[in-house]
Design goal:
mainly alpha; Tetratricopeptide repeat protein; TPR_rpt; TPR-like_helical_dom_sf
Length: 226
């Protein structure tokens, strides 16, 4: 189940001249590969990396593996270059997410990227302890990491709740992930057998962003089962 979740995960998330974060999220929510390509081509620095990350996740869902790997590489190269110029918690968190997806697509990369991911998240937390995107990426990382290695479902739920609280802070620049935090907490609750709590969180994700496709998908799955 967790493998399927990774394939559908951050994808269904939650400019023109130069892309902005909200435009990228809108395209990702509708799995618009053409628009995501355009946004990645018409963006720079962090936005370029973020557009390529969302493009990678979306094309992974649609089975375009070559484009997935290409987009991940572009996101990684951009973020690594940015971090040589200036330390940023948001860039560190996004790069950790990129490394995590690299590992998910090829487990043999765990040795190369596993420690890098942990170090990036540690540095980002120290730099900005209240950054919600850092907490969100830590929650996702914990979801897929066994408890014996410092992860686990309980930790993922705690970190997702922490991110949700942190998203209450005002934000006017890099603001993605609020709906995702509720969605991941719902997934943790589902793993723990609390389906009612999971569905409540997925609905809260839609209350924040009615276009958020992943939460819609998860709720529709449960509607079919019932």
């Amino acid at each position: 189940m967790k493998t399927l979740l990774l394939i559908t995960s951050l994808t269904l998330a939650s400019h023109s001249a130069i892309a902005d974060i909200s435009e990228i999220d809108n395209a990702a929510n509708t799995m618009d590969v053409t628009q995501l390509k355009l946004l990645s081509e018409n963006s720079h620095d962090y936005e370029h990396a973020y557009a390529n990350y969302r493009l990678a996740v979306t094309t992974n869902i649609t089975g375009q593996r070559h484009l997935t790997l290409k987009s991940l590489t572009q996101a990684q190269d951009t973020l690594e270059a940015l971090l040589t110029q200036q330390t940023s918690a948001d860039s560190q968190a996004l790069l950790a997410a990129v490394y995590g997806m690299q590992i998910a697509l090829d487990n043999s990369k765990g040795a190369e990227y596993g420690m890098k991911t942990a170090l990036l998240l540690q540095q980002a937390t120290k730099l900005e302890p209240n950054n919600p995107r850092v907490s969100l990426v830590k929650a996702i990382n914990a979801f897929y990491t066994p408890s014996v290695f410092g992860g686990g479902i309980n930790k993922a739920q705690t970190l997702a709740s922490q991110a949700i609280t942190q998203y209450e802070q005002p934000c006017d620049t890099i603001c993605w992930g609020h709906s995702e935090a509720y969605t991941w907490r719902g997934l943790a609750k589902q793993e723990q057998g609390d389906l009612a709590g999971a569905m409540q969180d997925w609905q809260l994700a839609l209350d924040i962003d009615p276009r958020y496709g992943w939460a819609k998908f998860l709720l529709s799955q449960q509607a079919v089962k019932q």
